[in-house]
User: Which sequence fits this backbone?
């Protein structure tokens, strides 16, 4: 049972079949006219660039035939010079320049030195970019990886003079000094309590180091002096570290300022909240009006309901935290009512005794 379509043979397409025939090991030498025809087909058709790259990949993959590899490299070189960005942008991807081309440098293929140098020259030249709109970031990354591993690239006809080398070292010394100053500022200042002058200088150094790093990345793909390349790689790593330190410092500073803002808002909210009533106002002392009302409620001689209606709080009256003036008025009214009731009781008893 089939689970999907089988992958299409890259040599079955129109341009793929041309690539296969133009790179057969039986050929004595390059057929330049056929190479140029392949370039025309690639440029003229929509799928031409993709089909051509797939065919080139298959031709280079696990191929130990040196004659076929040599013909394929010659065809690739002509296509890169005569085909447009649609083709070039596919070749400078990692899945081609690293996974196919560089694997041919493995000792098991035992390629001749001139073919190995040709492959390395491809990588170096492509990493420097094209005139068209081609993203070379991936091949540039491959090139830098090779430099870090100590791979020696073939020298070109253009050589750097002693004055240019001296100027480059001068620029690198300036970059190193900026890195040291920037690192010192980051160590001496704490996010949230930093020195304003140090912060102004730090921002200027950050911008300068960014520009220096861009300059170094450009030099890494153009400079051929091995000693200078080693120095460029080291300074680039130092710049990377100090720029990452600045980013961490900035994040911590933003976090500190945000916490301060939240704390200020909380304090302001607490200040605006109403204060709780005093315990003196809420307490019930012996001399308070509440004690008097309790006595009145316990005396059956007071009003029939057991309490004085004049002492009942109404909906419009204030709560317990009202002023003592209102309480005093209520006490006076209640006391008068009690005295009147007592007077009536005494007169009634006196009259009974007289009778």
Assistant:
């Amino acid at each position: 049972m089939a689970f999907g379509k089988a992958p299409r043979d890259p040599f079955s397409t129109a341009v793929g079949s041309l690539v296969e025939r133009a790179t057969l090991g039986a050929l004595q030498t390059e057929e330049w006219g056929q190479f140029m025809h392949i370039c025309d087909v690639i440029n003229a058709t929509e799928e031409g660039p993709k089909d051509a790259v797939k065919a080139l990949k298959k031709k280079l993959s696990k191929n130990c035939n040196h004659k076929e590899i040599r013909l394929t490299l010659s065809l690739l070189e002509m296509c890169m010079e005569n085909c447009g960005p649609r083709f070039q942008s596919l070749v400078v991807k990692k899945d081609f320049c690293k996974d196919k081309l560089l694997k041919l440098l493995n000792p098991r293929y035992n390629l001749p030195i001139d073919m190995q140098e040709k492959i390395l020259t491809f990588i170096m030249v492509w990493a420097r970019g094209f005139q068209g709109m081609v993203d070379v970031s991936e091949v540039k990354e491959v090139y830098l990886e090779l430099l870090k591993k100590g791979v020696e690239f073939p020298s070109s006809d253009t050589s750097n003079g002693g004055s240019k080398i001296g100027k480059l070292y001068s620029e690198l010394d300036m970059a190193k000094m900026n890195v040291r100053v920037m690192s010192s500022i980051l160590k001496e200042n704490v996010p949230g309590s930093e020195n304003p002058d140090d912060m102004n200088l730090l921002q200027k150094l950050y911008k300068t180091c960014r520009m220096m790093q861009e300059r170094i990345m450009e030099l890494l793909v153009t400079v051929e002096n091995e000693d200078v390349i080693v120095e460029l790689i080291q300074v680039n790593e130092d710049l990377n570290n100090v720029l990452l330190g600045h980013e961490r410092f900035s994040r911590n500073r933003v976090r500190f300022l945000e916490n301060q803002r939240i704390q200020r808002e909380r304090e302001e909210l607490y200040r605006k909240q109403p204060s709780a009533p005093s315990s003196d106002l809420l307490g019930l002392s012996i001399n308070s009006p509440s004690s008097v009302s309790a006595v009145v409620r316990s005396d059956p001689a007071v009003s029939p309901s057991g309490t004085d209606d004049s002492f009942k709080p109404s909906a419009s009256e204030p709560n317990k935290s009202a002023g003592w003036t209102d309480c005093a008025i209520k006490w006076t009214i209640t006391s008068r009512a009690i005295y009147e009731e007592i007077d009536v009781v005494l007169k009634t008893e006196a009259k009974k005794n007289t009778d």
